[in-house]
Specification:
It contains three helices and nine strands; from the N terminus they run ββββαββββααβ. By secondary structure, the chain is of the alpha+beta class. A hairpin with a 2-residue loop joins strand 2 and strand 3. Strands 1-5-4-3-2-8-7-6-9 form a nine-stranded antiparallel β-sheet, covered by helices on one side. Helix 2 packs across helix 3.
């Protein structure tokens, strides 16, 4: 799972999923040497992990109305959120509204209890990055959306996944540009792959901003090569 709920005292193996921070007051996850000294931190209001299927997408995990953090670093894009379980919503009219308010309070208290001592984390390391896409909000009900794609492989079976991230108070096109530039530079330095891909990686290392030509479509940067998600 690219997104995972981890116990805050789980400090074992951060290759697939970030390790929760052990010291208060800083990042929500443990920093790595490869993160570099110029990370960008962005506020996330919702996140969803989806499996891409021939007939559409299947949502595996979704957390909405949150205050999560996206970390864009020199080796990965990581996500963390402490209060990821907001509880269910109950609605009522008239006398039913009083019951609904009480039910909301109970739900939120239960959610806080469930998430205590746990944190929702995830990451896309740059060797895994297949593409990065973005789309600014274009009307009521829409969001500033960032999308990261990657694949997994078990035996001969390959599966495609995407991580959809709603950002707050930031242009997602700028975030996508920053991510692809860092990813391309990381690939050139550590996992350049076949020589025929090097020119494209150099172009992406200086990639211009994405251009939105149609409101309903999400423009993207596509990496010329990538690795399957895994601990190796």
């Amino acid at each position: 799972m690219i997104l995972k709920i981890r116990s805050t005292d789980d400090i074992e193996d951060g290759r697939l999923n970030p390790i929760p921070a052990q010291a208060p007051g800083g990042w929500l996850i443990e920093r790595e040497p490869g993160d570099g000294d110029r990370p960008v931190l962005l506020l996330v209001t919702s996140v969803a992990l989806q499996e891409v299927l021939p007939g559409g997408c299947r949502t595996l995990l979704r957390s909405s109305r949150i205050n999560g953090i996206l970390y864009i670093t020199d080796c990965r894009v990581a996500f963390a959120c402490e209060n990821y379980d907001r509880g269910s919503r109950h609605w009522g009219i008239g006398a039913g509204a009083v019951v609904a308010l009480a039910a909301n309070g109970i739900s939120k208290a239960a959610a806080a209890h469930r998430s205590k001592g746990k944190i929702l984390v995830g990451q896309t390391r740059y060797p895994w990055l297949k593409y990065v896409a973005a789309k600014p909000r274009h009307g009521y009900g829409s969001v500033d959306e960032l999308r990261l794609g990657c694949d997994t492989k078990t035996g001969s079976e390959t599966r495609a996944y995407r991580l959809d991230i709603a950002l707050a108070n930031v242009n997602p096109l700028d975030a996508a540009q920053d991510i692809v530039r860092r990813a391309a530079r990381y690939r050139l330095n550590y996992f350049p792959g076949k020589p025929e891909n090097h020119d494209r990686l150099r172009e992406l290392a200086e990639a211009p901003p994405l251009q939105v030509t149609e409101q309903k479509k999400m423009p993207s940067y596509i990496m010329p090569n990538y690795f399957f998600v895994g601990t190796a």
